Amino acid sequence: MIPAAFDYVRAESAEQAISLIGQYGDDAKFLAGGHSLLPLMKLRLAQPTVLVDIGRLADLSYIRDAGDHIAIGALTRHMDVETSSVLAEHVPLLANAASNVGDPQVRHRGTIGGSIAHSDPASDLPATTLALGATYVAQGPNGTREIAAKDFFLGFLTTALAADELLTEIRVPKITGAGWSFQKFNRRAQDWAIVGVAAWRLNGASGVGLVNMGSTPILAASVSAALASGAGVAEAAELAAAESEPQSDLNASPEYRVHLAKVLVRRALEEASK
Amino acid sequence: MCQPLGGTTIRRGSLIMQITVIVNGAVHTSEVEPRTLLVHYVRETLGLTGTNIGCDTSSCGACSLHLNGEAVKSCTILAVQADGQDITTIEGMAAADGTMHPMQQAFMENHALQCGYCTPGMVMAASSLLKENPDPTEREVRLGLEGNLCRCTGYHNIVQAVLAAATNGANR
């Protein structure tokens, strides 16, 4: 399968990439690792006329301890998130979630920023960073702004990013010492999650994100609220799908997904409560 | 570097780009359409047909090769993205005198192939795995080869071969 024809420009800086996207308009797309975009282009579900390649912007690939949070450059590859010693210490949930993305070859190319900007509800990292209360940094022609993860995912493959904004950084609050769990239910190796759960608990606070339980990644706020008011794990897990509107597809009906979400949230909270 | 030829664009998608890549130690400069996939470039432009096309959807791993020393799926990378980079295909694994790479040797000794279609991708993925994890457990080998499918289902001997190769110098 070969994508429809397009023009290709390799950006030398974030500023140039944003300027190029502005110049080419709606038909242009940023190309990072390409492991979400290129499969869509090969199926001709996406037919951008210009790709602005940001894959060589090495200054957007980093994982830094920034005090109360970890700052992750948008072009940091999944493999580097998975193996980061900084994340292993302060946000092991995110490193573990990254190790569940695709397979090693995919993780050598795919980037955390690309995954979040693509915002597939079946992807592991959008829901995980949502559970962690991350903040995304977007750079546009007039400077940068911060967008809370809970305000970022607007609909299926639709985010709060403007057409000429580039996601540059993901800021993840430290949860050093927290209990955590990442649950991914699928039928074959390397498949997308039929349902996935990212959960953490620390000193009475918690976060639970759901993969593939609706048209966006879902924050299971009712579960955290129940835990905060003293509910047990099993009781809180019954509320797992309160915010969800799961779809039907080849793998599962909505009813089955709701069942899975309750079971997986219970398992995740049990593991995170150890 | 990646430069459009012939100046200004006439219409979108008509651009031909010039790329320079190092493949198995040799420098190649070629003209490609931006939409040319790396696997098609390697197979059709360079004639290196050891890299196979299986699923063409980044699932099966038959097209795995090394980009800057790491296994990647060449059906999901544009040739223009590889401009200026270092590529190794299965043809580049054996030494110049024909001595097989320790991973190839281990595949042969452990009968780690049946029809052979997945084998080049398996060897490339497995050798990349051992660079990152020189002494893997059996489970780590299985997880490390998650992105490579063998439709003959000959996984047992493939895993044995990778474990043998790890003790046999393929992790250098």
What oligomeric state do these chains adopt? Answer: heterodimer
* Shape descriptor of chain A: globular
**Lateral arrangement of strands in the main beta sheet of chain A:** 4-5-10-6-7
How far apart are the first and last residues' alpha carbons of chain A, in Å?
48 Å
Q: What would your notes on this structure say?
A:
The complex is a heterodimer of chains A (274) and B (172). Chain A has 274 residues and is an alpha+beta fold. In chain A, 32% of the residues lie in helices and 25% in strands. Chain A has helices at residues 14-24, 37-42, 78-82, 85-90, 92-99, 104-109, 112-118, 124-131, 221-228, 233-237, 254-272, and strands at 7-10, 28-31, 50-53, 63-65, 69-73, 135-140, 143-148, 153-155, 158-159, 166-173, 179-185, 195-202, 205-211, 218-219. Chain A is globular. The relative contact order of chain A is 0.12. In chain B, a hairpin with a 2-residue loop joins strand 4 and strand 5. In chain B, 28% of the residues lie in helices and 16% in strands. At the A-B interface, strand 1, helix 2, strand 3 and helix 6 of A face strand 5 and helix 3 of B.
